[in-house]
Amino acid sequence: MQSRATASQAEKKTRQLEKVIDDGEQKMTELLDELKEAHDEERRTNAELTKLRLQLDETNSATDFAKKDCKKLAGMYTPSRRSTSTKFCRRGRIVYFIELDMHT
């Protein structure tokens, strides 16, 4: 009789332990899925960041080229050929437009 009770208690503890193990495996699977999704999101974010950095580099190169081009153009005009200049503010910068007197 006592051996049956002991066997019954052992089976009950075994079922409880199996339930705890199953719950742990389920939580582990959920966490692994979340981790995989986080890694995928990181890859997508890094790809987007790389794309944006390349665009920034291209924009900076184009800006540098435009600045050099403007300096070259500004050097082509001598002060004696300037008749008037118009000044206005664009995005916080003062920009001068030179109107040339082409009739001299």
Q: Quick gist of this model?
A:
This protein is an alpha+beta fold and 104 residues long.
Number of helices: 1
Written as H for each helix and E for each strand, in order along the chain, the element string is: HEE
Mean pLDDT: 81
User: Structural class of the secondary elements?
Assistant: alpha+beta
The best one-word shape is rod-shaped
Strand order of the largest sheet: 1-2
What is the number of E strands?
Answer: 2
Bin the strand percentage.
15-25%
Kindly report how far apart the N and C termini lie: 126 Å
> The biggest beta sheet, please?
2 strands, antiparallel
Radius of gyration, Cα only, in angstroms? 38 Å
> How many domains, as an integer?
1
- Measured as a percent range, the helix fraction is over 70%
Low-confidence stretches: none
Topology:
Layout: H1 2-76, E1 82-90, E2 93-100
Antiparallel strand pairs: 1-2
Question: What would your notes on this structure say?
Answer:
The radius of gyration is 38 Å and the shape is rod-shaped. The protein has one helix spanning 2-76, and strands at residues 82-90, 93-100. A two-stranded antiparallel ribbon has the order 1-2. It has one domain (2-78). The chain is of the alpha+beta class.
Core attributes:
alpha+beta, 104 residues, two-stranded antiparallel ribbon, 72% helix, 1 helix
